[in-house]
């Protein structure tokens, strides 16, 4: 199951560090972004973070999958979840990051 993290919930920093080696940077974008968790049998197996850059642009700041779950399609599911959640947004692959854009919208 993929769900939005609760505001007071501790986030899986160990997973986020797999995709971004700077814990300082992670705390920076997590504090102003939206974090989603992929859980299986009560444990977090994957995570992604979205951050609104402008009222029309959202950046996928981090997507990470537990090493034991890599190669099983969970990363793809996380990206597809992000794009499906923001119905009406357009996802653009910018080589090393993803942007979601929407004219006149905002991150829910």
Give your account of this protein's structure:
- This protein is of the alpha+beta class and 108 residues long.
- The chain has a single domain (2-101), classed as 3-Layer(aba) Sandwich (Aminopeptidase).
- Helix content is 27%, strand content 36%.
- The chain has helices spanning 13-19, 23-32, 74-85, and strands spanning 2-4, 34-40, 43-54, 57-65, 90-93, 98-101.
- The protein has a six-stranded antiparallel beta sheet, sandwiched between helices.
- Strand 3 (43-54) and strand 4 form a beta hairpin.
- The longest helix is centred in the last third of the chain and has 12 residues, at 74-85.
- The protein is globular, with a radius of gyration of 13 Å.
- Residues 103-108 have low confidence and may be disordered.
Q: What's the helix count?
A: 3
Q: What share of residues are in beta strands?
A: 35-45%
Q: Count the beta strands.
A: 6
CATH class: Alpha Beta
Q: Structural class of the secondary elements?
A: alpha+beta
Biggest sheet strand line-up: 1-2-3-4-6-5
Q: What share of residues is helical?
A: 25-40%
SSE layout and pairings?
Layout: E1 2-4, H1 13-19, H2 23-32, E2 34-40, E3 43-54, E4 57-65, H3 74-85, E5 90-93, E6 98-101
Antiparallel strand pairs: 1-2, 2-3, 3-4, 4-6, 5-6
């Amino acid at each position: 199951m993929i769900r939005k993290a609760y505001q007071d919930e501790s986030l899986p920093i160990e997973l986020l560090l797999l995709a971004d080696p700077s814990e300082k940077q992670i705390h920076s974008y997590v504090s102003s972004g939206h974090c989603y968790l992929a859980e299986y049998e009560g444990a977090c197996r994957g995570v992604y973070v979205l951050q609104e850059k402008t009222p029309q642009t959202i950046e996928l700041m981090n997507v990470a999958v537990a090493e034991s779950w890599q190669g099983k399609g969970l990363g793809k599911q996380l990206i597809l979840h992000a794009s499906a959640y923001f119905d009406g947004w357009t996802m653009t692959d910018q080589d090393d990051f993803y942007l979601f854009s929407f004219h006149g919208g905002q991150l829910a």
